[in-house]
Design a protein that fits this description.
- This protein is α+β, with helices and mostly antiparallel strands.
- It has helices spanning 56-78, 83-101, 171-185, 201-210, 229-235, and strands spanning 4-6, 19-20, 44-45, 49-53, 106-110, 115-118, 127-130, 134-141, 149-156, 161-168, 219-220.
- The chain is built from 5 helices and 11 strands; from the N terminus they run ββββααββββββααβα.
- The strands form 3 sheets. The chain has a 5-stranded antiparallel β-sheet, with helices on one face. It has a 4-stranded antiparallel β-sheet with strand order 1-10-9-8.
């Protein structure tokens, strides 16, 4: 479900840096949605775009439909149509209708063009903007320290609210996922780990080679090597990982 939350920045900066903080979990093909499996965190992945469909319409169909059905059933059981039944139906019906009429809500990471797309409110069109111009802020809840449930929200710079990007139970998981996104969006680096990208690695390398191996767009706290030692040696004629290592820059957790 795509959720929106109003939040104020803490006195300590809660924005995530455009920095590869750690090695992400490999993105394997088992995490890609297919018609056969009907499951997967990602709907489409290649060397140019990564797409996630939050299936928002299903949530509203289920939520609105359940509440609507409950109100109708209670009316039939009691053989009366009381005012609170009418109120419940009036409140739930718009959500149920929205579930059938909602536009597709997508998160699109356009590696090729350096753009990110994320959903806006209800029928408003999705927001597309340059990835570095977006603002990703972490928000902790579920525990007294805020460490038991970490949510990342993406928004325009300095915007008061945002779209829920991802949720994890531990900050290192959210940090790892964010590192994957930053790595993927750096088109001057090789593709992140995972066999989901294996079919595109050679073409991606040849593209960067033809461009003269331009330097990374974002810094990293870990090496981001090429697929083979031969490719690594060829790239290092232009730049080396250690030349673009991030220092101690990080967000406060």
């Amino acid at each position: 479900m795509t959720r929106f939350k109003r939040f104020k920045k803490k006195w300590l900066d809660s924005r995530m840096p455009f920095l590869i903080l750690e090695t992400p979990t490999p993105l394997d093909t088992k995490y890609i949605w297919t018609k056969e499996t009907k499951k997967g965190a990602y709907d489409y992945v290649d060397d140019k775009k990564l797409i996630i469909d939050k299936q928002e319409h299903l949530v509203y169909k289920i939520l609105g439909g359940t509440i609507l059905a409950f109100a109708l059933v209670m009316s039939l059981i009691t053989w009366s149509f009381k005012i609170h039944h009418l109120v419940t139906i009036c409140v739930s019906a718009p959500f149920f209708i929205y579930g059938f009429t909602a536009p597709q809500k997508l998160y699109v990471y356009n590696r090729e063009q350096g753009l990110i797309t994320f959903p806006s409110y209800f029928y408003k069109p999705d927001i597309t903007m340059p990835f570095p111009k977006s603002s990703v802020t972490w928000f902790g809840n579920g525990g007294t320290s805020g460490a038991m449930r970490i949510e990342l929200y993406v928004s325009k710079e300095n915007a008061p609210g945002g779209a829920l990007l991802l949720t994890h139970h531990y900050i290192h998981e959210a940090s790892e996922e964010w590192s994957f996104i930053v790595w993927y969006m750096d088109k001057n680096r090789p593709l992140p780990p995972g066999d989901a990208f294996d079919a595109y690695r050679e073409a991606d390398f040849e593209r960067r080679k033809a461009e003269g191996f331009p330097p990374p767009l974002f810094k990293s706290q870990i090496p981001t090597p090429e697929t083979t030692p031969k490719q690594q040696k060829e790239r290092e004629k232009y730049w080396k990982d250690r030349d673009y290592f991030g220092k101690s820059e990080s967000v406060w957790f």
